[in-house]
Amino acid sequence: MDTAETHNRKSTSKPAKLSREVQARLGQQLRSMYDDVVNQGVPDRFTALLNQINGDGNKDGQ
Amino acid sequence: MDDSVRKAVLGAVPSLRAFAISLCGNVDRADDLVQETLLRALANIHSFQPGTNMSAWLFTILRNHFRSEYRKRRREVEDGEGRYAQTLKSQPEQYGRVEFREFREALTHLPADQREALILVGASGFSYEEAANICGCAVGTIKSRVNRARTRLAELMSIEDADEFGPDEQTRAVMAGGGE
Questions:
Q1: Residues B170 and B122 in one domain
Q2: Residue B14 domain-assigned?
Q3: Which class for B80: exposed (0-12), middle (13-18), buried (19 or more C-beta within 10 A)?
Q4: What CATH number has the domain bearing residue B18?
Q5: What CATH number is attached to the domain comprising B173?
Q6: What ipTM did this prediction achieve?
Q7: Disruptive mutation site among A1, A10, A38, A40 for chain B (greatest number of B CBs within 10 Å)
Q8: Residues of chain B contacting residue A20, judged by C-beta atoms under 8 Å apart
Q9: Could you tell me if B28 and B59 lie in one domain?
Q10: By 3-state DSSP, what share of chain B in percent is helix, strand and coil, each rounded to 5?
Q11: pLDDT tens across B28-46, in order?
């Protein structure tokens, strides 16, 4: 109980606004995690899917 | 299908995947989610207004589809969030590189509303207005969700570091589970 209160106080005593440094670090981690996937490009299954739909949509075309 | 539409859709795929993985925490499920999104989008391509943001349109479809799927699954599995976090731990290889594991895990502890708002604004690069449109809520709501997400995330990341707070696990769980 004591520990809980101490702990609670510890996290609520932080300023409501995060420091610029913390925000920047979080933002940077979030983006690198996200971009790691973005940089994988378009997996073949999706190119194939769109080609297939294209083929179904206008069978006479091409 | 118009070639420019096809190009715009394909161009959005990498970011859609990144968003989907952030939402559901599993690459395979995320790719299924993207595939279902593309099928839905192309079946309703007539409702897309040319000249508007294709990417935002696709994100909206994916987000809504995920929400309805997620609700269904939640009914099937009682502890939705807990199980989700567990999946993360048991299949680390699903989540890309090790260096992002801790961060991804912290993300799983955010309420879904906050998680999606943070990702849309902080990673996908949408404006607050665009994110509000995608989530179907007010701009102010998005702003407060992003702020709360950042604060919670900062707490989670520093708490993760201080593992000597072992007995505090319970408190942490209560705090993490409380409110939106």
A1: yes
A2: yes
A3: middle
A4: 1.10.1740.10
A5: 1.10.10.10
A6: 0.74
A7: A38
A8: none
A9: yes
A10: 80, 0, 20
A11: 889 999 999 999 999 999 9
| Local structure of residue B163 (DSSP, 8 states) | T
How far apart, in whole angstroms, are the C-alpha atoms of residue A44 and residue A62?
A: 21
User: How many structural domains compose chain B?
Assistant: 2
pLDDT digits (tens, 9 = 90+) for A1-58: 444 444 444 444 444 567 788 888 889 999 999 999 999 999 999 999 988 877 665 4
- With tokens 């604060």, the residue in question is B151
pTM here is 0.74
pLDDT band of B69, cuts 50, 70, 90: confident
Find the domain containing B179 and state its range. 109-180
Q: Is residue B86 part of a domain?
A: yes
- pLDDT at residue number B99: 64
Q: How many angstroms separate the CA of residue A61 from the nearest CA in chain B?
A: 10
User: Nearest Cβ partner of B38 from A27, A32, A49?
Assistant: A49
